[in-house]
Design a protein that fits this description.
The structure is a single chain. This protein is of the alpha+beta class. The protein has helices spanning 5-12, 15-32, 38-48, 57-62, 68-86, 223-238, 244-252, 257-270, 272-283, 291-304, 314-317; strands at 95-98, 102-110, 113-120, 123-124, 129-132, 135-153, 159-167, 171-175, 179-198, 205-209, 215-219.
Length: 318
């Protein structure tokens, strides 16, 4: 494997890399203190806590006034590019990602709100589905040119499509519970500033087929619940049978539906009797949003495994 001499030099002496990172951190602090930036970050704190965007004048201006978002990014470049020219192996302190098509740079986060610099590489994209989440998003295009559409859904899962052209200066506001922006063709790299805020108690995210509207998948909109679902799945893959009673209790308790259902599924896999008893309990609960799903699963399991009928006897449920 070839190692560039400049990288090899850093392996032998880490002091230059530490100096580069210190310079990057100083550049970030200088950017945050810029007159075009500091009021925006102060407003982001308020917006992230639930304030309406219209009440956050500096932040609102990024997505309603021509050139407002550009001033924020100009300040970002002005502070960081000199450091990168001096130390090309320095890493910006912002969380970032790139997958060959999409680039993201998390500029700031406060409460439920994120401010992200987002870029899409040129090319065509096809969409067979659309995803919706319990959040709002505002977007200001900074550069590039692209064809896009806004997909809107109604209560009957019927979809309407609004085509649009995205170019420098275009601003959008989206209610992501019923609207999804899909960029279908990019002529020149599309760069935009995005402001995203989740609901205080977010409902699940859902993905539907287009144009039919069949539900493809659903995921918890609560980050904490999602983490707990991952923990449950990990315990299940590890075969930790001692966790089954706790999983059965989680399935019975009020709370996030997807988390309760995941707990039930993992409990059934680890301890059939404990899981099936929890399933029967859920199926019998009038008004529980999981009752119908539990009854359908009960019928399916009994058809596949008739021996489970024994667990429905009163003495087994005592």
């Amino acid at each position: 494997m070839r190692i560039d001499p400049a990288i090899a030099a850093l392996r032998g002496d880490r002091a230059p890399q530490r100096r580069a990172q210190a310079a990057m951190a100083a550049a970030c602090e200088a950017w945050r203190a810029e007159p075009a930036v500091a009021p925006v970050l102060a407003d982001l704190e308020r917006f992230g806590a639930g304030e309406e965007l219209a009440q956050c004048s500096a932040l609102d201006a990024l997505f309603t006034r021509p050139g407002g978002a550009g001033a924020l990014v100009d300040a970002l470049c002005r502070q960081h590019l000199p450091v990168l020219r001096e130390s090309p192996f320095g890493h910006p302190v912002f969380r970032h990602g790139y997958d060959g098509e999409v680039s993201t740079l998390l500029l700031a986060r406060a409460g439920r709100a994120h401010l992200v610099l987002h870029a899409l590489e040129p090319g065509r994209r096809e969409f067979a589905s659309a995803g919706f989440s319990d959040a709002v998003r505002f977007e200001a295009v900074l550069a590039g040119e692209a064809e896009a559409r806004v997909v809107r859904r109604d209560a009957a899962q019927a979809f309407a499509f609004e085509p649009m052209q995205l170019r420098d200066g275009v601003c959008l506001g989206l209610d992501l519970t019923r609207e999804a922006l899909q960029v279908t063709g990019i002529t020149r790299r599309l760069v935009a500033l995005r402001l995203h805020r989740f609901a205080s108690s977010p409902g699940p995210s859902r993905e539907y087929t287009l144009p039919g509207g069949a539900l493809l998948q659903q995921a918890s909109g609560d980050l904490r619940a999602s983490r707990h679902e991952m923990m449950l799945a990990t315990l299940g893959r590890m075969g930790r049978c001692e966790a089954a009673p706790e999983m059965a209790a989680m399935a019975r308790e009020p709370g996030e539906e997807s988390l309760r259902w995941q707990a039930l599924r993992e409990c059934l896999a680890l301890d059939t009797e404990a899981g099936f008893r929890a399933l029967l309990d859920l199926a019998s609960r009038k008004g529980d949003p999981l009752a119908a799903h539990a009854e359908a699963l009960r019928a399916q399991l009994l058809e596949l495994h008739p021996q489970l009928h024994a667990l429905e006897e009163p003495e087994c449920l005592a």
